[in-house]
Hints:
The protein is α+β, with helices and mostly antiparallel strands. 19% of the residues lie in helices and 34% in strands. The strands form 2 sheets. Strands 1, 2, 3, 4, 5, 6, 7 and 8 form an 8-stranded mixed β-sheet that branches. A 3-stranded antiparallel β-sheet has the order 9-10-11.
Amino acid sequence: MTSSSFLDSLTRRLTVEEPTRLVPRASAGVAVIFHGPGDREGVLLIRRAEREGDPWSGQVAFPGGMVSAADGSFEETARRETSEEVGVDLSSDAAAFLGYMGDFKARMREVVVVPSVFKLAARTTVTLNKEVASYAWVPVRSLAKAEARSTYLLRRNGAEVAFPSLVHEGWVIWGLTERILSAIIQNQEAGDDRVLGEIGRY
């Protein structure tokens, strides 16, 4: 593990170009929000409320949601959804938009998800709406430790399916959120020059 900032390493490999076409109801945007100095960098994660019919019910996630017909970019989607879900202002006065990581394909539905990366100017108040049960500022460096790695067993159609996961203070992070966080962590360790997107491990 290097001592450099995860955000600095990530920023060099982001793009400000839209990674893919915006398609309402078929694409989504999430906000990867960093705050804090390099040795204590944290990202904002939420635990979604338990809701019947929601394929991501109860999961740990980044703030975000489906693209609206009114959205002009994935950045706009991420800003709007973050304001709605957690009350965090990501306008240019409150946060810097650093770019896109690329596009990831969700496994639970045929949805393309684009993470927008932001750096907050200052720690902010988080106000949850009914879609969000709780939140945490999670240190990226703690997720990069070997002991944070685990396996999540999903019971589906009478069988168990194993997914790589990250564990932080009782929060089990798996699926798309784990893949995005792992891309951030592995990008710094490998010094990969590509724009981060679907890493295709599972």
